[in-house]
Amino acid sequence: MTTLHTFGCSITQGFALPDVVRPVLDHAGVPLTNEQIEAQAIPWSDIHVYEPSSYAWPQVLADQLGIPVVNHARRGACFKQISRQCAVAAPMIKPDDVVIVMWTYMSRVSLQWPARTAVPFCNVVNAGWGWRTVILGFNKLFGLERAASTTDETEQQIQRYIEDSTTNTYLNPMGIYDRYYNSLVLQAMTDGFLRNTGARVIHLSVETEPILAQLEIARSELDPTLREPYNIPDPESWYKLRVDYDSCFEILDPSIPPAENDMHPSVTHHKNFANLIYKRYFTK
């Protein structure tokens, strides 16, 4: 039987939708306000369930297609984490299955350790708009807790390492171009082994700006001596992956209120997006 496999970040997982949010109540059974939750320092992992939502677009689309779905997406995922999702799932994908990869923001940076996934920075390479953020304790967002043996001093050392290493390695113009270029390679390789399963493969994006355009912006930030001529293969000559950058306007529609108490897409966003994907890719 045909199965739908989906991969991506929180938008594909269905983060903050009603069935994956645990209500936080006071002693009288009254829901706490966001201010009260913050004041009591209630961990994210106690509120947000670490599993896909039945309201998320993969389930809605699968219901329209009349087939089961396996939603492999997880919140906070970067390019390499999404590629890893695909690699881990590849053995279970059959020739008559449908695979949809919804790539996340290319600007995400993540570091991996056996007991932890850290997404310490997000950077946008644009002379008119730069943004980066470091969040202490970000692992709680992923439902991970630090080891019992970890001290506050050790935790701070790890956070300093994350900040220093990502600033010096990943967030300077040379590091950004290198990472973006290699993200294209990773995408192409991921597409290759997914198609080798025989399944139908569709690539979507949560971003409206094509990856090649973002790479060009990164190239323009390099020192002139590093820009030209191309001694490495020019991506225009080998990157041929077809990625849908238009459909995401539906799931990011600002005219529709977001999920309750969050800025992620709502139930309505997901339903509209699933309808669009169904019409665009599964009807003649």
Could you provide a short overview of the structure?
The chain is of the alpha/beta class. It has helices spanning 10-13, 34-39, 57-65, 79-89, 152-170, 173-195, 211-220, 224-227, 235-238, 248-251, 267-282, and strands at residues 4-7, 69-71, 98-103, 108-113, 116-122, 200-205.
Structure description:
Residues 127-137 have low confidence and may be disordered. The chain is built from eleven helices and six strands. The protein has helices at residues 10-13, 34-39, 57-65, 79-89, 152-170, 173-195, 211-220, 224-227, 235-238, 248-251, 267-282, and strands spanning 4-7, 69-71, 98-103, 108-113, 116-122, 200-205. The strands form two sheets. Strands 2-1-3-6 form a four-stranded parallel beta sheet, sandwiched between helices. A two-stranded antiparallel sheet has the order 4-5. Helix 3 packs across helix 11 and helix 6 packs antiparallel against helix 7 (211-220). The protein starts with a strand and ends with a helix. A hairpin with a 2-residue loop joins strand 4 (108-113) and strand 5 (116-122). It has a single domain, classed as Rossmann fold (3-Layer(aba) Sandwich). It has 284 residues and is an alpha/beta fold.
